[in-house]
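ok here's the first one, seq then struct tokens
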Amino acid sequence: MKSAGIPIEDRTKPGEFLSVSLSGHALLDNPLLNKGTAFPVEERVEFGLLGLLPPHISTVEEQLARTYGNYQSKHTDLERFIFLISLQDRNETLFYKLLSEHISEMTPIIYTPVVGEGCRYYSRSYRRPRGVYISYDDRDQIPQLLDNAPNRDVDVIVVTDGERILGLGDLGVGGLGIPVGKLSLYSLCAGIPPSNTLPIVLDIGTNNKELLADPLYLGLRQERVRGQQYDDFIEAFVEAVINRSPRVLLQWEDFSKANATRLLEKYRDRLCTFNDDIQGTGAVTLAGLLAAVKAAGTRINEQRVVMMGAGSAATGIANQIVAAMMTDGLSQEEALSAIWLVDSKGLVHTGCSAMDAIKRRYAQPMDRVSAWKLDHPDNITLADVVRNVRPTALIGTSAQPGAFTEDIVREMASFVKRPIIFPLSNPTSKSEATPQDLIEWTAGRAMVATGSPYAPVSFGGEVYRIGQCNNVFIFPGVGLGVIASRARRVTTQMFVAAANRLSEFSPALADNRAPLFPSIDDVRTVSREVALTVASEAVRAGLAEQASSEELTRRVDAKMWRPEYLRYARVAGPPDSLIV
């Protein structure tokens, strides 16, 4: 008999059972252990379930057919999102089994772009709590709040303060939908057991006037805490996490640009942590860029990159590109000179006043633009930059729909044989351009990747499938590699290594009309390879104990949970215990 304690491990071996102390409705109400109508007769007897379930014992296939039929009956994406979250709250094994059977169809529903709508309507569609809500009013009780979490042995925490949810802005406590969705992808794509994950929202208020005026809003009804009070609150949270789970991987998610980079820099050397908006976005974008330059027959150190947007996502991407260029032989100065950032006020250059700290590294010297012919010298626009820099790659993180205009794209296509264009802003309503327009304006020559999923594009009798520059190809595998190797820290080089490994899966390397990124159907295979790469880099960098490649492979495979019903054996235990 197996005595496992949460987390639930991958599978029991022949002749083994999982020891469970819950029974009756307490067992049925626990989504980690509930099998619903699939409980066999012997377990219905043993766990006091007779009479609490319909008499027919369903196979998993029958449950999937019934559940998928119900899913298909929903009329809107928001209804489908709510249906899947409700299923997750009832039966996590069936939830992940259903997702794994329909991964391409359902991943956009449980995460981008539909999760944004779920966050917007969080207070109005609320059904059941998940994760931990840490309110500013409870700032003196954070350790106790973490102790109340249902998961005792946590490998991964994803935390947000809800201030910058996708391209939708401040959604307050509704931002919890992002950590929930991210951790669902950790389990789906990299096999991190859901019992080992913990979503957290830090509720410090909201400046969203609509939410504050909504009588159904569930969060703290005050404007956001700022300044030293905010920093003290974050410090208390981090300290409580370190004390409770010193080896946990903490992922920051959807913090404002004023806080995201600052918090990452402050805490990256105190615990195992990263920011997916900065580093994950940077790595997956770098992977697409590496695939594109390989497909075009060039090298990363030959690229000139213009970025529309200069926030934490843009600078995170730039940091990864600079690191890759330096690996390919450029000096840091040469690599930095190849990156041009354009924000809402125009080109980021040394003549700008009151520049954000995160932009300063990428401010181009004024003498590089002094000879440019400009219509408005006080505002160097994206069009000016494209015309003068003649970029090989154009990347958008601005959340400014239509920013990549026809004139700009045609200008770029006039001097680049295979223009690389990534409109990455989410959701689709915020995208800088549509793939259809980009393919048409470049006569099919553009290599396009987007932040949200798009349908294939038809042009000139050809069909172009559009790859999604989706962080799901990076962060689950990075997390798995960090956990399996028992790495003490997360580094930029781990993300660069992950990006290089991901780029090798690009279908565009074999077919120039194929997408730059693999199918989401292959994400579990990709995540495993990314994990092995990250684990090896952790060992190489001295951030994990020495282990052979064979040992790292064994650890990664052992950590990859699969959504399968286990056999249970009842044991005595305290009323609130799940597994002993």
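and now the second one, same deal
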Amino acid sequence: MIVGIIAAFLRKNGKRLTAMWWGVILAVLLSVIVGVGLDLAEQALPQARQEGMESIIGGVAVFFVTGMIVWMNNHAQNMRRQLEAEAAAALSQASAYALASMAFLAVLKEGFETSVFLLATFSASQSAALAAAGAIIGLLLAVAIGWGIYIGGVKINLSRFFRFTGAFLILVAAGLVISSLRTAHEAGWLNIGQRTLFNLSWLVAPGSIHSALITGVLGIPADPRRVELAGWLAYLICVAFYLYWPHSLRPGPRKAARWQIAAGAALLVVAWGLFSFYPTPRAHLAERATIVGITGDASPPIGSLDLTAASGKASAMLKVSVVGARELQLPLPKEQGRRERDNGRDLMVWTIAHRVSADAAPGTVTLDDVVALNGGRIPIGLSPQQHPGPYNADWSIHCSTRVGIAQGLLVDASSRSNTLLTLSGSGLQTPRTLTVKQDGNEAALCRWRVSDAYRARAEAEWDRVTAADEERHFWAGALPVMLVIAAAFFFFSAIRILIRRRRAGSVAAADVMSPRGHNTHQLNNKGATHAEH
């Protein structure tokens, strides 16, 4: 349409179209290069980054389309006159370069917007071939309309034309909002509001006409999610109200500025409320952690674990309770914890080395006891003839306990031990130390792990708190920032309206005062002349 209007004006003034076509061709080529370059850059990225790139392109496309809709809605009535005035100004410079530059800049903006919009549409469509066919048909139709305007056979009421096409483009842009939010989630950027609200597979079955219209054109998927529906409604309602609110009901400049200031203040209050009062998720698991032997859940529970959270300077404490043994308390200093990834989730892990005394173990052992403790073999260096026993026994249990905590919740824990038996006496010149397998209540304090059932419940609670924490980051972090930015936009717009109004008032006052001053001067002169007479 832009090219058709410029060409018709040049033909009416008897000018050649060569310079205009150079500007148009350069703008179209640059727009195609931008689209191809973005597509190649996207294809070269890993899958997650491709999804992120699609989100960015979709957001830019929504911005471009919205700007185009608003601009056309505000300037449709005067667009022909503006283009003809710019062309006349270019002709007055007697330079083909000026006309080519004017055509180039006029087409380049629309070309960029079309390029990014088509790229985002191709990414969101189910069939790239069908999307390309639709784009080609649309471009050919646009060329036909431009040719019709050039030869004078097509007369279009631009204001009415853009009013109806703008409504359709609002729906298309709202669909791009959904697609951008979906790819943002797939890129790992947006993890809130992903619960599916309803199933539309009966309406948008793949391959059907309904699917081509609703999903392919309007971008509505078969499984819309909560955040996608919120984004779709927010965009659709705000833009539609802005464009189609009756002019007779729109407030004047002063009242509009007041409303914008009030809206900005309200957004700041909401942002402060969300930031200050949105609840922080807490992990809750009412039961103690049940521990079993290291052989697995098939064995009966042998005790439990209790985790006491850190308070002030005091470290967190893990209390190990085993049936028939004394209670064991293990401190978990914050500086000794390290961050690990467990199934894609962050976990703070402590590995604690400690000893457990074996008070109930016998002080003396026979040779047969030593053979049994050594797996049925006589230890190397121990001769039954020279060292028949009995021996003095010194027991030492060395433990290594691993504890995993997330969101203040005990998720996983296990303990392993090595029992050292030091023999002396019975002719031994030097003590002999053996690693043996020792059963008993003391050893059980270091040979356990949390049950699979408890770990499953803890991981489910961990996932719930993690999801709630991500929701909090959005509602108490990202959303307040966006609301503050929106409030700043309202304040800036209101200030600009008030400044324009003050300047207009100053100009009007100057225009009024100037004739009055001139008349006063004339009256003074008349009075002086009359006095002279």
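notes on #2: The first helix runs from residue 2 to 12. Residues 516-533 have pLDDT under 50 and may be disordered.
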